[in-house]
Amino acid sequence: xxxxxxxxxxxxxxxxxxxxxxxxxxxxxxxxxxxxxxxxxxxxxxxxxxxxxxxxxxxxxxxxxxxxxxxxxxxxxxxxxxxxxxxxxxxxxxxxxxxxxxxxxxxxxxxxxxxxxxxxxxxxxxxxxxxxxxxxxxxxxxxxxxxxxxxxxxxxxxxxxxxxxxxxxxxxxxxxxxxxxxxxxxxxxxxxxxxxxxxxxxxxxxxxxxxxxxxxxxxxxxxxxxxxxxxxxxxxxxxxxxxxxxxxxxxxxxxxxxxxxxxxxxxxxxxxxxxxxxxxxxxxxxxxxxxxxxxxxxxxxxxxxxxxxxxxxxxxxxxxxxxxxxxxxxxxxxxxxxxxxxxxxxxxxxxxxxxxxxxxxxxxxxxxxx
Length: 370
Description:
The protein is α+β, with helices and mostly antiparallel strands and about 375 residues long. Helix content is about 25%, strand content about 25%. It has helices at about 15-20, 20-30, 150-155, 160-165, 185-195, 200-205, 205-210, 300-330, 350-365, and strands spanning about 35-40, 50-55, 60-65, 70-75, 90, 95, 105, 110, 130, 135, 140-145, 175-185, 220, 225-230, 255-260, 260-265, 270-280, 285-295. Strands 12-18-17-16-15-14-13 form a 7-stranded antiparallel β-sheet, with helices on both faces. Strands 5-2-3-4-9 form a 5-stranded antiparallel β-sheet, with no helix packed on it. β6 and β7 (about 105) form a beta hairpin. The longest helix has 29 residues, at about 300-330. The radius of gyration is 23 Å and the shape is globular.
């Protein structure tokens, strides 16, 4: 007789992970302050002094190219009396605070303050902008507010080499189109929906019949990356021309979700697009879809792809995640078991089990974990 005790069946996370404002505040203080976040594309910083500002969960930062050609990232706050330094994007010879004209070099050091000579011993050399680590991954800039952050290669092993193999021209890409989609749900609801394809055949007919073979779809952890792989189908009936023999991955689809809020996605034909989740509160998130071409050249094909994606898969997902968020607020909801197939595959939620482990790890509080 088999007396072995069965392994515990993992369940979905409790609703409070998605609905409790305090949980979201803890994420802003902890998770978002110690992970890698997409800032923007390096093509926006071609000349010394080029900059752009961006937000991470309520914190304003900016990236800028310095005079030595490097790219730096700083908190967007003057060290004098906390005024914001820049807005939007542009170019500057020096970083000048609009409040009292304190002026910083492009490397963040203080160049001078108005009337500083009137104060003997003014501590100019001790004042500099608060800098954060920044990495350039194939032209995509990521920042981590943790000054002791481990490099992205430790977090996401193998991703850069795989991206270069699937998109041989990736270093020449520039953004062509951004599509912002607002969703009335917690950011993790949207991320979880992206990180499983258990729902795809039922809810995404265009994606499931026109791009992937659902029965071959799988998602596996790769460090803090969830790697999506599949065989493709109907390449001869795609809505844009594809030469499967152009390179080893010309007829392939793959995706790399980088915890916590970014994903690279490659369609057949080596077409790169990206997802970037930007939380707006406990139950609001904006998902920014990026589409890219070589040198940013105009492309009717990519424009049509972006439009088709927005009208099909993206629109279908909006209804799904917003329904889930409403359900999470129901008194009748009890977290059910995750369906985990040891062999993986499209109808398995093993990727969510990994994702939930990262969520619990990030919150780092046994009192709120099952």
